[in-house]
Design brief:
Blueprint: H1 4-11, H2 15-28, E1 32-35, H3 40-52, E2 57-58, E3 68-70, E4 84-86, H4 91-94, E5 99-100, H5 103-114, E6 122-130, E7 139-145, H6 148-157, E8 159-160, H7 162-171, E9 175-180, E10 190-194, E11 199-203, H8 208-211, H9 214-230, E12 233-235, E13 237-243, E14 249-255, H10 262-266, E15 276-281, E16 285-289, E17 295-298, E18 303-307, H11 317-322, E19 328-330, E20 333-334, E21 340-341, E22 353-354, E23 360-361, E24 375-379, E25 396-404, E26 414-416, H12 420-428, E27 431-433, E28 445-447, H13 460-468, H14 470-473, E29 481-485, H15 505-516, E30 521-524, E31 527-530, H16 544-551, H17 555-569, H18 578-591
Parallel strand pairs: 1-6, 3-19, 4-5, 4-10, 7-9, 9-11, 14-25, 25-29
Antiparallel strand pairs: 2-3, 6-7, 6-8, 10-11, 12-16, 13-14, 13-15, 16-17, 17-25, 18-24, 19-24, 20-21, 22-23, 26-29, 27-28, 30-31
This protein binds sulfoacetic acid and manganese (II) ion (MN).
Length: 592
């Protein structure tokens, strides 16, 4: 670990940060305070320490060089939405989409938990920058944490350390994030956001979205509030580049709820010959109107925090290459060769191994070896198809925005919005079956507008209005086209109708050709759908019935869908923008 004189240098760089660190240390009583400089040597040293301390297990240096395995507390495996709060002066500002507490009460409750919680532990000071250090659109934070695991993950996921602290000093402002794993007691676990003071307090969890405060807490919940005020957008979206065989390139952003395949789509290997996908980000996009009037998207992160189960050479070869070195695996199986394994990895299960809870495990034990929400943390720079512009301080111009979710029926494979307002309507009515990424029952349909339900830091009705406002912020023809996609349709027997993964390039191709004005579509009551011949299904051996089911309107299903959206809209108590009410009424009228 770095030596004391260097800490003094970092600590003396910014008086505001130092004063806050001192105040927190007084409250939390750590054994020592360590300022992170973000260097490779610091990362390596910290990893060595944790390995020596048995908090991390080193993996096989031949097959997974520089990689480690972490096991969480068995109760600490996912985001905890019921324990996540937005604390604003007025309850109405947090909206029906957030749990709310008055700031004063929230601070009192949290400070009582933090009092003395770092005794015997190290307090790490983690200055970080979301977005390229040199981008005017980036935002900085400082996370104080007592978890070295969090420090390592922050090092992979953000621009962390010395350069970030310099930028904070230049900016004169930063988001304060205080985190402690506490005693990991689920009864004493809360994630609180104070958007009006630009601060976050998180206690009792070491899990990604609860503990890596730059990610969902800053880059989505806090940033969404700042973005509303400043006229930009903080979105739960991947960003990808799509290049056609003719060499024409378009950038797309896509919002899907957690664990619905954003990482897979973001770095997909297209099956269609001549098409190329390059990746700019897999989870978060900050979007603003550029000088030319188009919407520009930037990924504020530097790594991928992806779901492990289901990630294989077949489903996502680029992810497999990305996490092959210098990565952290959390809650997966350890094999006797000190490799990692998980369900649907595309590799035979080891005859015996150690499961995510650290217990001996065999494939016939009747339980999963890896937790369904087990994760890899890997540097984006190692992605074989990382886009050359992924760190462009201006971001990249978007040609299309996609929304999607897990919908076994009714929702077609791809549907193009008539215009911006219709696209916002599509985003606002996103629904998806729940997954293991959040605690709770998986597999039930819930409305998850813009895939932002767990991440929008203010009243969702105001958020809808903010989205609508972009039609006034630039010329309409400069706005990206909007699409709703659904890779998850099933037939009556429960079989997937669409092969997904690399075959999704067929849908991207249609979208790309629509943007360029060359692909055919048919106007239907629900949107513009591909004509039967417009979607390239060559070589898929799909039955006509299946192809038809994927791109046809199911009027009965859609009437039910519209009713369900109406019921959802009712939650917004008259605050819902009129444009969306009209969109719903128009849809119902078109359905007859
Ligand atoms: O744990 S995270 O919130 O970062 C991942 C996710 O649920 O999207
Ligand atoms: Mn996510």
């Amino acid at each position: 670990m770095a030596t004391a004189p260097q800490h003094v240098t970092l600590a003396s760089m910014n008086r505001d940060v130092a004063a806050w660190v001192e105040e927190v240390a007084k409250l939390t009583q750590p054994q020592k305070v360590y300022w992170c400089d973000g260097s490779d040597s610091e990362f390596a040293a910290l990893k060595r320490e944790l390995v020596a301390d048995k908090q991390l297990l080193p993996l096989n240096p031949q097959s997974f060089p520089g990689c480690v395995l972490s096991r969480s507390h068995p109760s600490d495996v996912a985001r905890v939405e019921h324990l996540t709060f937005v604390c604003t002066k007025n309850k109405e500002d947090a909206g029906p989409n957030n749990h709310w507490l008055a700031p004063k009460q929230a601070h009192a409750q949290m400070d009582a938990l933090f009092a003395g919680c770092m005794q015997g532990r190290t307090l790490y000071v983690v200055p970080y920058c979301m977005g390229p250090i040199d981008s005017p659109f980036s935002r900085c934070g400082v996370e104080i944490t007592d978890s070295a695991y969090v420090v390592l993950n922050m090092q992979l996921m953000t621009r962390m350390g010395h350069a970030a602290l310099e930028r904070i000093t230049r900016d004169g402002t930063f988001v304060r994030g205080l985190h402690s794993t506490g005693d990991l007691n689920p009864e004493r676990r809360f994630i609180m956001h104070f958007p009006e003071e630009l601060s976050i307090k998180s206690f009792g969890s070491g899990y990604g979205g609860n503990a890596l405060l730059g990610k969902k807490c800053l880059a989505l919940r806090i940033a969404s509030v700042v973005a509303k005020r400043e006229g930009w957008m903080a979105e739960h979206m991947l960003i990808l580049g799509l290049t056609s065989p003719a060499g024409k390139k378009h950038y797309l952003a896509a919002a899907f709820p957690s664990a619905c395949g954003k990482t897979n789509l973001a770095m997909m290997l297209p099956t269609l010959p001549g098409w190329k996908v390059t990746c700019l980000g897999d989870d978060i996009a900050w979007i603003r109107v550029g000088k030319d009037g188009r919407l520009y998207a930037m990924n504020p992160e530097t790594g991928f925090f992806g779901v492990a189960p289901g990630t294989s050479q077949k489903s996502n070869p680029n992810a497999v290459a990305t996490f092959a070195r210098n990565s952290i695996f959390t809650n997966v199986v350890l094999t006797p060769d000190e490799d990692v394994w998980w369900e649907e990895m595309g590799v035979a299960a080891p005859a015996k191994g150690v499961d995510w809870e650290g217990k001996e495990w065999t494939p016939d034990s009747g339980r999963k070896g890896a937790h369904p929400n087990s994760r890899f943390t890997a540097p984006a720079s190692q992605c074989p198809v990382i886009d050359s512009d992924w760190q462009n301080p201006e971001g990249v111009p978007l040609s299309a925005i996609l929304f999607g979710g897990r919908r076994p029926n009714t929702i077609p494979l791809v549907n193009e919005a008539f215009d911006w307002e219709h696209g916002v309507f599509m985003g606002s009515s996103c629904g998806s079956e729940t997954t293991a990424a959040a605690l709770g029952q998986a597999g039930v349909l819930r409305r998850d507008p813009f895939a932002m339900l767990p991440f929008c830091g203010y009243n969702m009705a105001d958020y809808f209005a903010h989205w609508l406002s972009f039609a006034q912020r630039t010329e309409r023809n400069k706005l990206p086209r909007v699409y709703f996609v659904n890779w998850f349709r099933k037939d009556a027997g429960g079989k997937w109708l669409w092969p997904g993964y690399g075959e999704n390039s067929r849908v991207l191709k249609w979208i790309c050709e629509r943007v360029e004005g060359s692909a055919k579509s048919q106007r239907t009551p629900i949107g513009n759908l591909p004509t039967p011949d417009a979607l390239d299904t060559s070589g898929l051996n799909m039955s006509n019935g299946d192809a038809e089911a994927l791109t046809a309107v199911d009027p009965a299903g859609w009437k039910k869908e519209a009713e369900d959206i109406a019921a959802y809209y009712a939650k917004f108590n008259g605050k819902l923008p009129a444009a969306l009410k009209n969109q719903l009424a128009e849809l119902q009228r078109r359905l007859g």
